[in-house]
Design a protein that fits this description.
The structure holds two protein chains of two kinds.
Chain A: H1 2-18, H2 21-42, H3 46-62, H4 74-95, H5 114-133, H6 135-146, H7 151-158, H8 162-180
Chain B: H1 10-22, H2 37-46, E1 109-119, E2 125-133, E3 136-144, E4 152-158, E5 165-170, E6 176-178, E7 190-196, E8 208-213
Antiparallel strand pairs in B: 1-2, 1-8, 2-3, 3-6, 4-5, 4-7, 7-8
The chains are: A mainly alpha, B mainly beta.
């Protein structure tokens, strides 16, 4: 079942480049929550955040020919667009003359600060990648990362065959590389 | 007995650890989008121009100036368009430019045109948008890294023959400029940012630093 998830992310990226309408709906189904979560964390006004989500997907549609899988993953490309839309919203809100000029504190921390939203993007990409690997591989990786257990110790702790732990760790490494790095999954 | 080589080796473990550290996922709570949001997106996409729209040629400006202040003509070179429409093919084909109109999230703001400005001299970059705001026209200018030297930066709208100019005044932090009521932006589509000396002379110094053309 987890291999189906891998295949469907790759298939989605391929179909996305060819720009079918069905791919747009699949993009939403797969990454709508990711983008929505990002926009809500980056800009606390819920209405503005909702606009950002919508504008992100419309922008993605417009620039779908520009997505190059060699240069990055589809979710990281999408969140890159979302960052721009959040920045636009922040900027235009700061200019609104109706009694709020300069007061953008209700938007939360300034998303135009590169560190702020870049860190958030990476957190969400990692969380999404681990989640789609499945509960067990996620638990394996979390034990390795947060508790510092060796793969042998993890296998014992979870009562799993060692081979399962090894393959979970390897798939996690490949998945995270693909999502965060430049290269797509092998 | 499992092969030692099947384990993640030390380098791979270090890499996995580094990837996890870049984005510690603990505590991430997912927020599902509200129902109905997809329908709004689908509707907005329906209104988009289709991929089959013909490309518009980019105008080339290499005519010398005449009359008034010396204004440097714009070289014809490929530009990055901020609001790309669907391209006929990726990368090497010039991106077609046209009217990008949508109802944005702002109250009563409509984007009529936008352009990423070319740098003509020195450092810096900028982008200009023509906005209809509550029925009036505004240019919104965003710039970075511009150096006014000992003078100040001024924003202009210029006609296509690069001879007639409308000053929108000194470049301001809020980046919003009202287009005077009698000025038709289609007649003055070139957006120009210049460095002006503080000499009391209202004419264009001839030292443009950024320029781009809005299309309609």
């Amino acid at each position: 079942m987890q291999d189906e998830v891998d295949t469907s992310d790759e298939a989605l990226a391929r179909d996305w480049v060819s720009g079918t309408d069905a791919a747009m709906r699949r993009l939403w189904d797969r990454y709508g929550t990711l983008v929505n979560t990002f926009c809500l964390r980056a800009i606390s006004d819920r209405d503005l955040a909702a606009d950002c989500v919508q504008e992100t997907f419309v922008s993605a549609w417009r620039s779908r020919d520009r997505f190059d899988p060699e240069r990055g993953s589809l979710p990281s490309w999408l969140l890159g667009i979302a960052r721009h839309r959040v920045h636009d919203a922040y900027r235009s809100r700061a200019r609104t003359p109706q009694g709020r000029s300069g007061d953008t504190s209700e938007l939360g921390s300034d998303p135009s600060e590169p560190d702020e939203s870049a860190g958030l993007v990476e957190r969400l990409l990692v969380a999404d990648a681990l989640q789609t690997l499945g509960d067990r591989p996620r638990e394996v990786v979390e034990l390795a990362f947060y508790s510092g257990l060796s793969q042998t110790e993890i296998a014992e702790r979870l009562g799993l065959p060692l081979g399962t732990v090894k393959s979970d760790m390897r798939r996690a490494l490949l998945r995270l590389r693909g999502v965060l790095g430049g290269a797509p999954d092998a | 007995m499992p092969e030692r080589s099947d384990f993640l080796d030390d380098n791979e473990m270090a890499e996995l650890r580094a990837l996890m550290e870049r984005g510690d996922p603990k505590g991430v709570v997912w927020e599902q989008p509200p129902p109905g949001m997809w329908d709004r997106i689908a509707e907005a996409i329906e209104r988009e121009p289709s991929q089959d729209e013909p490309a518009q040629d980019e105008p080339v400006h290499d005519r010398p100036t005449g009359g008034g202040a010396e204004v440097i003509p714009m070289a014809g070179r490929r530009r990055n368009w901020w609001y790309p429409l669907a391209a006929a093919a990726a990368a090497l084909v010039a991106v077609p430019v046209g009217l990008a109109v949508w109802s944005g999230g702002d109250d009563d703001d409509r984007l009529l045109s936008a352009v990423e400005l070319d740098r003509l001299a020195g450092s810096g970059s900028g982008r200009a948008e023509l906005i209809e705001h509550d029925g009036a026209l505004q240019v919104r200018l965003e710039t970075s890294d511009l150096d006014p030297a000992d003078g100040y930066l001024e924003l202009w709208l210029i006609d296509e023959t690069v001879t007639k100019l409308v000053s929108l005044g000194p470049v301001r932090p809020d980046g919003v400029y009202d287009v005077p009521a009698g000025v038709d932006p289609a007649a003055f589509p070139i957006v120009d940012v210049s460095v002006e000396p503080v000499d009391g002379d209202p004419t264009h110094s001839g030292e443009s630093v950024l320029r781009g053309e809005l299309t309609f």
